[in-house]
Amino acid sequence: MKKHKCIKIGIVGCGAIGSSLAKEIVTGLRKDACLVALYDIKPQKSVLLSKKLTRDVKLCVASLKALIERSDLVIEASSAKGSWEIASKSLSFGRKVMVMSVGGMSGHLDELYALSRKNNAMVYLPSGAISGVDALKAANIAGVQKVTLTTRKHPNAFSGVEYVAKNFNLKGLRHDKLLFEGSAAQAVKYFPQNVNVAAVLGLAGIGMRKTRVRIIACPAVKKNIHEIEIESKAAKVFTRTENILHPQNPKTSFLAVLSAIATLKQILQPVKIGT
Ligand SMILES: NC(=O)c1ccc[n+]([C@@H]2O[C@H](COP(=O)([O-])OP(=O)(O)OC[C@H]3O[C@@H](n4cnc5c(N)ncnc54)[C@H](O)[C@@H]3O)[C@@H](O)[C@H]2O)c1
Predict the structure, then answer these.
(1) What does each C-alpha distance from 91 to 154, 190, 196 come to in angstroms?
(2) Domains of the chain and any CATH numbers
(3) pTM for the structure as a whole
């Protein structure tokens, strides 16, 4: 009988998503996956996580390169600013890579295909906190005319967003406020931590420039709500996802973490269900 081989996983970014994924890998996925390295630009974060998981710091590495060398699969859960460098370096070493900060891939799609083909490596971009990517991918084969994402979040979810701080005062906001309307390409530029889902939609469908995005601050909502409308030759699709917030980071939806775990399971398991 062929010996079962565990996939060695390294995680870059030990915040809300990285920590949740690390915990799942060492518990629910331990038969098929093995956590071999953690890296964070703030070393205290990887130290803390490693200690929580293993009682010592053996998982911590001092550089991205060291993490890549130890891993078969690199999971990026850091920031849109650094995600392209992390993905491209991992691919150059022939490693599989799963990218959470999908906004950072905007403008790099052709290079992503070229690098993965050249190095015989794979890239995984989970759907994240939205529903409808399966339908979009299928419909796109026949032709999609229009994709619109409308995102509603509590004003607090936009704290620290430079574009918002410059253009709006959301303190004490009592009514809904339209913060942005434009292309997915612009949305990921202005809201790098908030709308990775816009990047997923743009890359999976008709492109970052044609995909339309509206972002609304809603004082009355407690969830991150994403509505998607797709007009295509095959079907008219409307989805609405009301996301519970991640307890460690209100900018991140709990479903985004679960979507990454589901993607990991797709990688690890032989039967793949869904588009
Ligand atoms: N795809 C999706 O649906 C989706 C959903 C939510 C969040 N995200 C994205 O995933 C990423 C992680 O989200 P989170 O909630 O865990 O954020 P977080 O702020 O809780 O954690 C990010 C961690 O990454 C570290 N970091 C930042 N840049 C780094 C770099 N270049 N190298 C190594 N470490 C670095 C930070 O120090 C921090 O510990 C963010 O970019 C976020 O926008 C994606």
Answers:
(1) 37, 27, 21
(2) 7-125 (3.40.50.720), 133-251 (3.30.360.10)
(3) 0.95
